[in-house]
Amino acid sequence: MCNECVYKHVKFTLENTYKTNVVCPESCCTEEFNHEGIRQTLETNDDKALFEKYDHQLTLRFLKQMPEFIMCANPGCDSGQLHDPGPSLLRKMTCMECKRNTCSFHEIIWHIDLTCDQYDRQRRNDIPSENWISKNTKQCPQCHRNIQKKGGCDHMTCKMCEYRFYWS
Fold first, then answer.
1. Dist CA 100 CA 79 (whole Å)
2. Within this chain, do residues 73 and 58 fall inside the same structural domain, yes or no?
3. Per the domain annotation, does 113 fall within a domain?
4. ∠ Cα 161 127 155 (to 5°)
5. CA 108 to mean position of chain CA atoms
6. DSSP codes of every residue in 117-163
7. How far apart are CA 54 and CA 48, in angstroms?
8. Which domain holds residue 161?
9. What are phi and psi of 152, to 5 degrees?
10. Number of domains in the chain
11. Is residue 36 part of a domain?
12. What percent of the chain has pLDDT over 70?
Protein backbone atom coordinates (compact mmCIF):
# COMPACT_ATOMS: atom_id res chain seq x y z
CA MET A 1 0.00 0.00 0.00
CA CYS A 2 1.43 3.38 -0.94
CA ASN A 3 2.09 6.21 1.51
CA GLU A 4 -0.65 8.38 -0.01
CA CYS A 5 -3.27 5.66 0.56
CA VAL A 6 -2.12 5.15 4.15
CA TYR A 7 -2.33 8.92 4.71
CA LYS A 8 -5.83 9.11 3.22
CA HIS A 9 -6.95 6.22 5.44
CA VAL A 10 -5.54 7.84 8.60
CA LYS A 11 -6.99 11.24 7.65
CA PHE A 12 -10.44 9.79 6.89
CA THR A 13 -10.54 7.81 10.17
CA LEU A 14 -9.53 10.78 12.32
CA GLU A 15 -11.77 13.32 10.57
CA ASN A 16 -14.91 11.23 10.15
CA THR A 17 -15.15 9.09 13.26
CA TYR A 18 -15.01 9.63 17.00
CA LYS A 19 -12.09 7.22 17.15
CA THR A 20 -8.55 8.03 18.18
CA ASN A 21 -7.32 4.58 17.20
CA VAL A 22 -6.56 3.84 13.56
CA VAL A 23 -6.51 0.22 12.38
CA CYS A 24 -4.37 -0.90 9.45
CA PRO A 25 -6.27 -0.52 6.14
CA GLU A 26 -5.10 -3.92 4.89
CA SER A 27 -7.91 -6.48 4.88
CA CYS A 28 -7.61 -9.13 7.64
CA CYS A 29 -5.11 -6.98 9.59
CA THR A 30 -6.17 -5.77 13.04
CA GLU A 31 -2.95 -3.96 13.98
CA GLU A 32 -3.38 -0.38 15.17
CA PHE A 33 -1.16 2.56 14.33
CA ASN A 34 0.64 3.84 17.40
CA HIS A 35 0.92 7.53 18.29
CA GLU A 36 4.31 7.87 16.60
CA GLY A 37 3.09 6.17 13.41
CA ILE A 38 0.14 8.55 13.15
CA ARG A 39 2.41 11.54 13.85
CA GLN A 40 4.86 10.49 11.13
CA THR A 41 2.09 9.80 8.61
CA LEU A 42 0.42 13.17 9.16
CA GLU A 43 3.60 15.24 9.39
CA THR A 44 5.08 13.59 6.27
CA ASN A 45 1.96 14.78 4.45
CA ASP A 46 2.21 18.27 5.97
CA ASP A 47 -0.97 17.84 8.04
CA LYS A 48 0.20 19.26 11.35
CA ALA A 49 -3.26 20.65 12.16
CA LEU A 50 -4.87 17.19 12.05
CA PHE A 51 -2.10 15.75 14.21
CA GLU A 52 -2.63 18.48 16.80
CA LYS A 53 -6.39 17.76 16.79
CA TYR A 54 -5.71 14.01 17.14
CA ASP A 55 -3.20 14.59 19.95
CA HIS A 56 -5.69 16.86 21.76
CA GLN A 57 -8.48 14.24 21.48
CA LEU A 58 -6.16 11.52 22.76
CA THR A 59 -5.17 13.67 25.73
CA LEU A 60 -8.83 14.45 26.51
CA ARG A 61 -9.75 10.76 26.30
CA PHE A 62 -7.07 9.97 28.86
CA LEU A 63 -8.03 12.86 31.16
CA LYS A 64 -11.77 12.02 31.04
CA GLN A 65 -10.97 8.71 32.70
CA MET A 66 -9.88 10.62 35.81
CA PRO A 67 -12.82 11.30 38.16
CA GLU A 68 -11.39 14.68 39.19
CA PHE A 69 -11.15 15.91 35.57
CA ILE A 70 -14.20 17.96 34.58
CA MET A 71 -14.95 19.28 31.10
CA CYS A 72 -16.37 22.78 30.87
CA ALA A 73 -20.07 22.40 30.06
CA ASN A 74 -20.43 25.80 28.42
CA PRO A 75 -21.12 25.93 24.66
CA GLY A 76 -18.12 26.71 22.52
CA CYS A 77 -15.57 25.85 25.21
CA ASP A 78 -13.60 22.69 24.57
CA SER A 79 -11.59 22.98 27.76
CA GLY A 80 -11.44 20.98 30.95
CA GLN A 81 -9.48 20.96 34.15
CA LEU A 82 -8.79 19.07 37.33
CA HIS A 83 -11.28 19.99 40.02
CA ASP A 84 -11.33 18.56 43.51
CA PRO A 85 -14.45 19.69 45.37
CA GLY A 86 -12.69 18.82 48.64
CA PRO A 87 -14.43 18.27 51.95
CA SER A 88 -16.58 21.38 51.50
CA LEU A 89 -18.10 19.91 48.32
CA LEU A 90 -17.42 23.07 46.35
CA ARG A 91 -19.17 22.02 43.18
CA LYS A 92 -19.05 25.30 41.29
CA MET A 93 -16.06 25.15 38.95
CA THR A 94 -14.91 28.25 37.08
CA CYS A 95 -13.30 27.33 33.78
CA MET A 96 -9.76 28.68 33.46
CA GLU A 97 -10.26 29.09 29.70
CA CYS A 98 -13.68 30.77 29.27
CA LYS A 99 -14.20 31.95 32.89
CA ARG A 100 -17.78 30.59 32.93
CA ASN A 101 -19.13 28.19 35.56
CA THR A 102 -19.83 24.46 35.45
CA CYS A 103 -21.40 22.25 38.12
CA SER A 104 -18.71 19.63 38.75
CA PHE A 105 -21.26 17.29 40.36
CA HIS A 106 -23.80 17.23 37.50
CA GLU A 107 -21.28 18.17 34.78
CA ILE A 108 -23.63 20.79 33.35
CA ILE A 109 -23.69 24.59 33.09
CA TRP A 110 -23.90 25.95 36.63
CA HIS A 111 -27.49 25.98 37.89
CA ILE A 112 -27.78 29.62 38.97
CA ASP A 113 -29.75 30.30 42.17
CA LEU A 114 -30.09 26.55 42.90
CA THR A 115 -28.05 24.26 45.09
CA CYS A 116 -27.32 20.80 43.69
CA ASP A 117 -30.04 19.35 45.95
CA GLN A 118 -32.59 21.90 44.73
CA TYR A 119 -31.59 21.17 41.14
CA ASP A 120 -32.05 17.42 41.74
CA ARG A 121 -35.50 17.95 43.26
CA GLN A 122 -36.52 20.14 40.33
CA ARG A 123 -35.26 17.50 37.86
CA ARG A 124 -37.16 14.71 39.62
CA ASN A 125 -40.32 16.72 39.08
CA ASP A 126 -39.69 16.86 35.33
CA ILE A 127 -41.41 13.53 34.63
CA PRO A 128 -41.94 14.04 30.85
CA SER A 129 -38.21 14.61 30.28
CA GLU A 130 -37.24 11.65 32.45
CA ASN A 131 -39.72 9.45 30.56
CA TRP A 132 -38.30 10.55 27.21
CA ILE A 133 -34.74 9.87 28.36
CA SER A 134 -35.57 6.41 29.67
CA LYS A 135 -37.53 5.55 26.49
CA ASN A 136 -35.07 6.93 23.89
CA THR A 137 -31.60 6.47 25.37
CA LYS A 138 -29.39 3.80 26.87
CA GLN A 139 -26.41 4.21 29.13
CA CYS A 140 -22.95 3.36 27.89
CA PRO A 141 -21.91 0.19 29.76
CA GLN A 142 -18.53 1.75 30.56
CA CYS A 143 -18.98 5.46 31.39
CA HIS A 144 -22.78 5.37 32.00
CA ARG A 145 -23.51 8.44 29.84
CA ASN A 146 -26.88 8.45 28.10
CA ILE A 147 -26.66 7.74 24.37
CA GLN A 148 -29.38 8.24 21.79
CA LYS A 149 -29.53 5.99 18.72
CA LYS A 150 -30.87 7.84 15.69
CA GLY A 151 -30.55 5.07 13.10
CA GLY A 152 -28.14 2.65 11.50
CA CYS A 153 -26.94 -0.67 12.81
CA ASP A 154 -26.81 -1.78 16.44
CA HIS A 155 -23.03 -1.41 16.73
CA MET A 156 -22.40 1.63 18.93
CA THR A 157 -19.27 3.54 19.91
CA CYS A 158 -19.65 5.90 22.86
CA LYS A 159 -18.50 9.39 21.89
CA MET A 160 -17.24 10.07 25.41
CA CYS A 161 -15.15 6.99 26.21
CA GLU A 162 -15.06 5.17 22.83
CA TYR A 163 -16.41 1.98 24.38
CA ARG A 164 -17.97 -0.30 21.74
CA PHE A 165 -21.17 -2.19 22.41
CA TYR A 166 -24.35 -3.41 20.74
CA TRP A 167 -27.56 -1.43 21.28
CA SER A 168 -29.75 -4.55 21.43
1. 11
2. no
3. yes
4. 30
5. 14
6. HHHHHHHHT-HHHHHHHHHHEEE-TTT--EEE--SS-SEEE-TTT--
7. 10
8. 138-166
9. 80, -165
10. 3
11. yes
12. 97
